[in-house]
């Protein structure tokens, strides 16, 4: 088969698997721009709690990563994805209940938090499971491509889901958010049911903590770079409101669109230049975008800052991820993906309360300066890891 049709066939096979990531993250994106305002304005609760509602999902994903990794490596990626899609549907039930309990703020918040915990656990199964499923179908030599397309699916879903959620709630009411999440979970299960599973790789399974230790430096760089995304995703609506600017949800769409464009255009650079070089360049661009958001005098320049942040953040995950997965054998690939992804969960999990506290003390503008500082730390770490790798290769 000629090279170009062969590449196209591989890409289509990958896309058919990461479709489930798209469905899972659409469930995450739909409430993303709605929930902070609902908790802070409609329920009358604090900005810290508004951030917690977003972050608790990432904390649940963080805590469920070891279990999800064991399921992927021992029971198969397809089973993990299907269990995750079922969890997505269940989270919609709790979110639907919260919409009818707005007159009881703390009860509504409790239902919302439970739904977010379930959704976070489902995310760890769907996201890592789809990566393992894709690599198992097309081969380990296409790891960077699978991770890149999985990211396109996830952030594309967030870009579509955020304004879609706002539109649905404005037109139909808060209940439509929970109902749509239930429907998407059922659709995903129906599509996944008949797809062929990837073979389970035999070999020695390393303890999760040992795998975690191997990918720790790469994950730390990812965590620092992810704070910018978590800050934008959680607080952009409140930041825009504090400045009196309209169309905050559009910022999430621009971030996602810029993210996707960068992966489509520059995704092959990882195999050509190496993961560390790409990560260094991307973290530099992300830092510039976050500084622009900090200094933006108008909504238009803030939008440009969000676009640069999305463009920069785009390849951080696959660039450092390829280097991380290479630290272990194929039999432990699911554990490596899970352990590495754990760091973005940790980052996004602490971003809500931490950045909420920064906003409460110094104002909403300051949160982007804080996020830019974190990205610079990730950049410095990536430079260090790159130099260490080159020194090792020469030795």
UniProtKB/TrEMBL annotation:
Keywords from the named record: Cell inner membrane, Cell membrane, Membrane, Transmembrane, Transmembrane helix, Transport
Keyword Cell membrane: yes
InterPro entries: MFS, MFS_dom, MFS_trans_sf, MFS_Transporters, MFS_YhhS-like
CDD domains: MFS_YfcJ_like
Lipid bilayer topology: Multi-pass membrane protein
Transmembrane segments: 12-37, 43-60, 80-102, 114-135, 147-168, 174-194, 215-241, 247-266, 278-296, 302-325, 337-361, 367-386
Family annotation (PROSITE patterns): MFS
Localisation: Cell inner membrane; Cell membrane
Top-level division of the source organism's lineage: Bacteria
Pfam families registered for this protein in UniProt: MFS_1
GO molecular function, one term: transmembrane transporter activity
Keyword Transmembrane recorded: yes
GO cellular component: plasma membrane
Record HAMAP family: MFS_YhhS
Homology family: Belongs to the major facilitator superfamily. YhhS family.
Protein's name in the database: Uncharacterized MFS-type transporter DZC75_14765
Organism field: Pseudomonas parafulva
Upper taxonomic lineage: Bacteria, Pseudomonadati, Pseudomonadota, Gammaproteobacteria, Pseudomonadales
């Amino acid at each position: 088969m000629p090279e170009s049709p062969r590449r196209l066939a591989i890409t289509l096979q990958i896309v058919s698997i990461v479709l489930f990531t798209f469905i899972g993250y659409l469930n995450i994106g739909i409430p993303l721009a709605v929930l902070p305002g609902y908790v802070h304005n409609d329920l009358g609760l604090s900005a810290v709690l508004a951030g917690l509602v977003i972050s608790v999902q990432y904390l649940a994903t963080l805590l469920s990563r070891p279990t999800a990794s064991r399921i992927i490596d021992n029971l198969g990626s397809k089973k993990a994805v299907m269990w995750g899609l079922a969890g997505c549907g269940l989270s919609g039930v709790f979110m639907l209940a919260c919409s009818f309990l707005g007159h009881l703020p703390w009860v509504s918040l409790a239902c919302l938090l439970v739904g977010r915990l379930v959704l976070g656990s489902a995310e760890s199964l769907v996201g890592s499971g789809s990566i393992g499923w894709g690599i198992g179908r097309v081969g380990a030599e296409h790891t960077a491509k699978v991770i890149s397309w999985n990211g396109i699916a996830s952030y594309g879903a967030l870009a579509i889901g955020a304004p879609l959620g706002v539109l649905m709630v404005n037109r139909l009411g808060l209940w439509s958010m929970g109902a749509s999440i239930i429907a998407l979970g059922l659709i995903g299960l129906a599509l996944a049911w008949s797809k062929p599973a990837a073979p389970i790789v035999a070999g020695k399974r390393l303890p999760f903590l040992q795998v975690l230790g191997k990918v720790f430096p790469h994950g730390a760089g990812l965590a620092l770079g992810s704070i910018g995304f978590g800050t934008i995703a959680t607080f952009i609506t409140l930041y825009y409101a504090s400045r009196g600017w309209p169309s905050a949800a559009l910022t999430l769409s621009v971030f996602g669109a810029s993210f996707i464009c960068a992966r489509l255009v520059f995704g092959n650079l990882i195999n050509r230049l190496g993961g560390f070089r790409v990560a260094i360049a991307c973290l530099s661009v992300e830092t510039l975008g976050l500084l622009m958001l900090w200094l933006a005098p108008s909504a238009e320049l803030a939008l440009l800052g969000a676009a640069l942040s999305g463009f920069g953040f785009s390849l951080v995950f696959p660039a450092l991820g390829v280097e991380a997965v290479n630290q272990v054998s194929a039999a432990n690939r699911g554990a490596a993906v899970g352990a590495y992804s754990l760091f973005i969960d940790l980052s996004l999990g602490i971003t809500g309360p931490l950045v909420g506290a920064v906003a409460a003390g110094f104002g909403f503008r300051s949160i982007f300066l804080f996020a830019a500082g974190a990205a610079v730390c990730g950049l410095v770490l990536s430079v260090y890891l790159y130099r260490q790798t080159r020194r090792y290769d020469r030795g």
